[in-house]
Amino acid sequence: MILMKCVNALSFYPCRESETHFSSDTDFEDIEGKNQKQGKGKTCKKGKKGPAEKGKSGNGGGKPGGPNRMNGHHQQNGVENMMLFEVVKMGKSAMQSVVDDWIESYKHDRDIALLDLINFFIQCSGCKGVVTAEMFRHMQNSEIIRKMTEEFDEDSGDYPLTMAGPQWKKFKSSFCEFIGVLVRQCQYSIIYDEYMMDTVISLLTGLSDSQVRAFRHTSTLAAMKLMTALVNVALNLSINMDNTQRQYEAERNKIIGKRANDRLELLLQKRKELQENQDEIENMMNAIFKGVFVHRYRDAIAEIRAICIEEIGIWMKMYSDAFLNDSYLKYVGWTMHDKQGEVRLKCLTALQGLYYNKELNSKLELFTSRFKVSHTLLTLFFLLPIPTPRSSEEVLTAEDCENVYHLVYSAHRPVAVAAGEFLYKKLFSRRDPEDDGILKRRGRQSPNANLVKTLVFFFLESELHEHAAYLVDSMWDCATDLLKDWECMNSLLLEEPLNGEEPLTDRQESALIEIMLCTIRQAAECHPPVGRGTGKRVLTAKEKKTQLDDRTKITELFAVALPQLLAKYSVDAEKVTNLLQLPQYFDLEIYTTGRLEKHLDALLRQIRDIVEKHTDIDVLEACSKTYHALCNEEFTIFNRVDIARSQLIDELADKFNRLLEDFLQEGEEPDEDDAYQVLSTLKRITAFHNAHDLSRWDLFGCNYKLLKTGIENGDMPEQIVIHALQCTHYVILWQLAKITESSSTKEDLLRLKKQMRVFCQICQHYLTNVNTAVKEQAFTILCDVLMIFSHQIMTGGRDMLEPLVYTPDSSLQSELLSFILDHVFIDQDDDNNSADGQQDDEASKIEALHKRRNLLAAFCKLIVYTVVEMNTAADIFKQYMKYYNDYGDIIKETMSKTRQIDKIQCAKTLILSLQQLFNEMIQENGYNFDRSSPTFSGIKELARRFALTFGLDQLKTREAIAMLHKDGIEFAFKEPNPQGESHPPLNLAFLDILSEFSSKLLRQDKRTVYVYLEKFMTFQMSLRREDVWLPLMSYRNSLLAGGDDDTMSVISGISSRGSTVRNKKTKPATGKRKYMHLTEESSSSDSMWLNREQTMHTPVMMQTPQLTSTIMREPKRLRPEESYMGVYPMQPEHHQAPLDYNRRGTSLMEDDEEPIVEDVMMSSEGRIEDLNEGMDFDTMDIDLPPSKNRRERTELKPDFFDPASIMDESVG
To answer: According to the UniProt record, where is the region Disordered (predicted)?
Structure first.
C-alpha cells in the first residue's frame, strides 16, 4: 500500500516555465565521456525485462531529491504538481523544461520515471486506466495492453488525437514535440542505457498492433515521431564520425615529432564509441521499422497510413544516404494506389521534395520507371504549394503539361485551381512586345482579345464542352481581369474582324458565348459550380461590393448588347439558349435609373420573335425563365414586361383553341401540318406554364378534350399526348399553389379535387398505351400527383386540404407495379425504345439506365411515404441481387426507410419477396428441384443479404425477426404433400432459406420459434433422416445451435458467414441484467409473439461501443468479399442518411455486411496487380551508410524493390 501511494504521488509533474540548468545542445552529456553509456548491446530487445533488471534504478531506487522537491519532483512558486499528460495537453510550458524535469526524475529512479512515461502514452490514447508499479514489474506488455483495453471508456469513440475543441487543438503538435525533444535531450546518454528505449519501443510496438483504434493511432504516431528523432540522431552521429575520422587522419599525417599520440588514442576511442552508438541506433530504428511501420503503413485507417508515409518521406529527405533507395521507396510506390485521397496526397508530397532536389533526383531513376511516375504523378507535383519550386520547363514535357491542363476540369477545387494557375502561366501570362502600345485599347483591339481566343481554342480542343463552368472556376482567381473583360467578348461576337484577322467560326462563337455566360454567372453568384463546393458561403463586405459592381457592369453592357446578340443569332438554338440566361443576373433597377427602357422593349421584341421561330424545348424554357426574371413586381419595369407576356400568352391560347377545334373535328382525319401546328403551340404553352401561372386562360378543358379523344380513338400522336399530359399537370399544380397560398372557397377545392381525379384516371388509361414514351410520361406524372395529394398534403397545419387527399386503389397500385416490372427490371439489351436504336452507343445506354433509375425512384418514394401498400415492395426487394449494380442503392435505401416506418411489416415484406421467388422457381422447375441449383442458391444468398440488413442490435429487431420466422414456417407447411404425411410438405425446402435468419434470433426466441415449429411437425417428421427432410433438420439445428454456448451480447452479432466475434468486457449494469432476466422469463410462453403482431414495443437500442478489445485476431484470413478498408460505423437510428436515389452502386460489394471485429490491416484489393504481400515478410534491416572513410559492410542486403523478391523472402 505504501508503495502504491508512492507511485501515485510520483506520477505528477510540475508545469515548469523557468530555464533549465542545461543547454539544448549539451543536455545531460558527460563532457569527459565517462558516463556516456551505462551498458552496451547490439540488439534492441522488444520483450519486457525481468523484475531483477527493473529493480536496478539509476540512483538506488529513489532518494529524496532535496528540500525543494516533493516526491522527487520540483515545486516552484507553490504550483501544484501536474501529470505529464496534462502539461503536454495544455501546451503552455516550454517542452524542453518538461523533458528536463522528467530526465532528472529518471536519474533519481528510472523505474518510476519510466512508469510515468508509459502512463503518459496510455493517457494520450484516451484510456482512463493506470499502469501500476506492480503491473509494470510482473506483467508482459501484451497483458498490460489487454488490461488497459478492458478499462477503456467505450461510451465514446473519441480520443485526444481526434477530439475537437480549443483545448485539443494543439495537442497533436505538443505530443509530437514532446517526443522529439525527449530524444534530443537524451541522445548523449540515456537512450543508450538499454532500458528506456527498449521499454518504450516495446510498449509502442505492442500498442500499435492493438485492435483498439485509439491505441493503434496514438502509438503509431508516437513510434513514427520517435523514429524521425532517431534518424536525426543517426545523422548527427554520422557527421561526428566523419569529423573525428578527418581529425584522426590529419593528426596521423603529421610528422612524428609533432604528432600527439595521446590525441590519436583519444580520437580512436571517440570513433569507437560513436560507432557503437550508431550500431545501437540502427538496432532501435530496425525495431521500430519492422515492428510498427511495415504493419501500419497499410492499416485499415487512412490517417494511420498517412502518418507512416509522411514520416518515411521525412526520413528519405533528411538522411538520403540511408533511406533514399529502392528498399524504402517501394512503400511510397505501393501506397500511391491507396483508395483514400489523403494518403495518396502524402505520397505526392513526400516524392515532390525528392524530385525537386537535383542531388536526389538521380537516385529515383529505377523508382520512376518502375512506378511510371513521369507521366502519372510528376504532373501533379506542380499543383502542390512548395517554398522554392524549380521551373516546370526543366522537368515537364509538352505531354506532361497537357496532363496538367486537363486537371482544370477536376471536381476537386484545390487541384483544379492549381491547374488553372499553371495553365494561365503557361498560355496566358506571356505578352508580346507589340501589345505594349495597345494596352489602353478596348474591345476587339484590346490585348485580351487574343487571350480570349486562346481560351476558346483550349476549351474546344479539350472536348469537354459541357464543363465550361469548371474551366472558368479553375481560372477565376488567377485570370479575373481576363474573364471579366465582357466588353472584349461582346466585341468579338458583334464587331467585324479587323484587316487580316480571321473571323470566329460557328463552333468558336458558340464556345465563346458559353464561356461568357459562365463568367457572368460566376461573378453574379460568387460561388463555384455544382460539385466544386460544399455550399454557399457567407460573402465578406469586400466580396459583396465586388459582386454589386460586377452586376452593375454586366447590366449596363448587356442591356444594350443583348438584343443585338439575339437578333444576330436568333435562328441558332444553342446560342440563343445561352444568351437568354443573361437577364437572370441583371440588376433590373438599372433599366429605369439608366433610362434603358427602349433597350428593354427591344429585348422583349426579340424574345417574342424567338418564341415564334423555335419549337425546341430548351429555347422555349429559356424564354419562359427570362420573362419570369423580368416580371419582378419589386421593379418599375414589371408592368411593361407583364403586358408583353400577357399579349404573347393571349395569342398562343387563342391559336391553340382555334387549332384544336379544327384538329378534333368529327369525320375528318387531321393531316400532319395540323398536328405539327397543334404540337408546336402546345409546346410553347407548356414551356410557359412551367414558370408562369396561366390559370386565367383555363387550359384544363382543352387539354382534357385532347387527351380524352386520344383515349377514344387511339391514334393521337405521341408528342401531343406527352405535352398535353405535362401541361395538364402544370394546371393542377398551379391551382393547388393558389389554394394553398390564399384563402379558397369550398367550390375551388371541389373543382380541383374533381380535376385531379379525372386527370389521374386519364394517366391510368395511358399506362396501357402502346407507346413507351407515353407510358413513361403517364407513370412519372401519376407518381408525382399521388405523392403531392397524399396524406402528406395536410402537414404543416394545412388541414383544410383534407378533401384533396387521394389514395390510389388496388388496381392503380397494381398497374404502377406492373409498369415497373415491365420497364425497369429488364436487361440492358432489351431496352431499345428509349435511345432510337442506338444502344451500341455507351452514352445512350447510360442515359437509358438513368431514366429507369428515376422511374424506380419515383415508385419507391410512394412506398417510403406509405402512399401505396408496403407489400408491393416485395416485387422490388426480390430484384435486389439480380439488379444490384443498377438499382442496389435504391432498393437498399427503400428497405432501410420502410424498416424505420414499420419493422414488422418490413420483415413480412422481405419474407414475402422470398416466397414469391420460391413460388416462381417451383412453377419453372417443379417441386423436385435440385437444392444445389443456381436458382435456389440465389434465393438463399438473397435471404442472407436480407438478414445482414437487420444489423447487430437484436433487441431492436427482435419482434420483426420473430414474425419473419413465423410467416416462413407457416409458408413451409402450407401445402401438404398429396402423397400423405410420410412425404414432406411441398414447400418444406423453404426452411433452408429461412435458416439464414436464425442467427438474428435471440437465444430465448430461438427456443420459442422451435416450439412453434414443433406445432407443425408430426412425430414421424422428427424421425425422418432422408435427403428430402434435410431442410427441416438444418432449420431445427439452426434454432438449437447456440442454446448453451451463445455468449453473444444482445447488441453484438455473429456474422452468418463465419466472421470473428467481437469480444469485450462490458461494465456492470444491474438494470440491464434485470431486463434480460425478465425477457428470458417472458419468452417461456409460446404465445409471447405468435398470436399477436403489434402489441410489443421494440426496446430502445442501447448505445453500441465503437471500440473493440485487444484480444488477438483469429489466424484465419477473411474471405475477399469480407475484406474492407475500415470498420462500419454504428450510426444511431436518428442519424439515417437522406433518401438519395441518384446514387448508383458501382460493384457487388457487400456493403451491408455485418460489422465484424476490426481488421487493422488494410485489404490488398485494388493495389498493383503483381503485389501480393504477406503480413510477416522479412523486411530489410536499416543499414546506415558508412562514413566517407568507414569500412564497407561485409554483408550486402538483397534488393527488395521487386515485389516478387518480397514474396520469396516472406516464404522463408
So the answer is: 24-75, 1176-1212
